[in-house]
């Protein structure tokens, strides 16, 4: 078997990865510096915690869309993901969650693993919808309890300034749900209070939240000053590279997501995003009024973008694999070491994908 530059938690190894029954059994080789050879890179598979769609399909379409979405994203190196809902009527969210709950129990061949659900809304500020449909409302514990019964909800985006949401943040975080601050008009003080109550991250940092001003630091200021984790969309459209650098210096475990829509992996045209119709053009996805509406980003391009703005490959990989796994408490994903899932991507020296493996299955994405 050919050798690779394998990224492990302890540094680069020149050698080969051995796996058995879906898990890494050994990483054989010697420490190396990839700059000293021309071998491919073998990195942990990408983990995307914010996926609305792909391949022309949207999560809110339900069961018929899920396999297309997971097969689309695995072609770009995403080996596991969180299916992310849109703000919608309660009945629609319940229907989709029920179908996702069943889908999460399996992984169709040739697909990425769905780790659970990111509930992005409806518990957001109606004054900061971004591209979310206008079905926002105050969270009720009874409603959340029903959602939790239907599907493994790992992450909930919430606006902390809404009355009663601080109590919900406290209660759900104690049960292991990651509560993320987002789609919010909250103040710096409200952001800090939410973190104290148990909130753990920020949804698409900088976007759809009160901005940083030197006399009113806003939610962005709370994140930059106090957060350990936050998600960021590195498509170079949602956030300027300079602002990305600020976040990278300020937030130790900043991790990257795509916020991808049905337009990901597809040509220019019109697509669904929840109840909205969006247009893909010039590399972006927008509502009719020009508002950015998710992205067309894929995780392999996210890696290249991070390297383009100056990150070394090992750090870029951490922010696409290890940190999102750590955020969800998944010790067997996001790293290549004995006992971990055999989720990995091989890239050539120009950082383009040549091979993808999910839980030991080699994905034939080139003929998909």
UniProtKB/TrEMBL annotation:
<dbReference type="GO" id="GO:0046872">
    <property type="term" value="F:metal ion binding"/>
</dbReference>
<dbReference type="GO" id="GO:0008448">
    <property type="term" value="F:N-acetylglucosamine-6-phosphate deacetylase activity"/>
</dbReference>
<dbReference type="GO" id="GO:0006046">
    <property type="term" value="P:N-acetylglucosamine catabolic process"/>
</dbReference>
<feature type="domain" description="Amidohydrolase-related">
    <location>
        <begin position="41"/>
        <end position="362"/>
    </location>
</feature>
<comment type="similarity">
    <text>Belongs to the metallo-dependent hydrolases superfamily. NagA family.</text>
</comment>
<feature type="binding site">
    <location>
        <position position="183"/>
    </location>
    <ligand>
        <name>Zn(2+)</name>
    </ligand>
</feature>
<dbReference type="InterPro" id="IPR006680">
    <property type="entry name" value="Amidohydro-rel"/>
</dbReference>
<dbReference type="InterPro" id="IPR003764">
    <property type="entry name" value="GlcNAc_6-P_deAcase"/>
</dbReference>
<keyword id="KW-0479">Metal-binding</keyword>
<protein>
    <submittedName>
        <fullName>N-acetylglucosamine-6-phosphate deacetylase</fullName>
        <ecNumber>3.5.1.25</ecNumber>
    </submittedName>
</protein>
<feature type="binding site">
    <location>
        <begin position="292"/>
        <end position="294"/>
    </location>
    <ligand>
        <name>substrate</name>
    </ligand>
</feature>
<feature type="binding site">
    <location>
        <begin position="207"/>
        <end position="208"/>
    </location>
    <ligand>
        <name>substrate</name>
    </ligand>
</feature>
<feature type="binding site">
    <location>
        <position position="131"/>
    </location>
    <ligand>
        <name>substrate</name>
    </ligand>
</feature>
<dbReference type="Pfam" id="PF01979">
    <property type="entry name" value="Amidohydro_1"/>
</dbReference>
<feature type="binding site">
    <location>
        <position position="238"/>
    </location>
    <ligand>
        <name>substrate</name>
    </ligand>
</feature>
<keyword id="KW-0119">Carbohydrate metabolism</keyword>
<keyword id="KW-0378">Hydrolase</keyword>
<feature type="binding site">
    <location>
        <position position="215"/>
    </location>
    <ligand>
        <name>substrate</name>
    </ligand>
</feature>
<feature type="active site" description="Proton donor/acceptor">
    <location>
        <position position="259"/>
    </location>
</feature>
<dbReference type="InterPro" id="IPR032466">
    <property type="entry name" value="Metal_Hydrolase"/>
</dbReference>
<feature type="binding site">
    <location>
        <position position="120"/>
    </location>
    <ligand>
        <name>Zn(2+)</name>
    </ligand>
</feature>
<dbReference type="InterPro" id="IPR011059">
    <property type="entry name" value="Metal-dep_hydrolase_composite"/>
</dbReference>
<feature type="binding site">
    <location>
        <position position="204"/>
    </location>
    <ligand>
        <name>Zn(2+)</name>
    </ligand>
</feature>
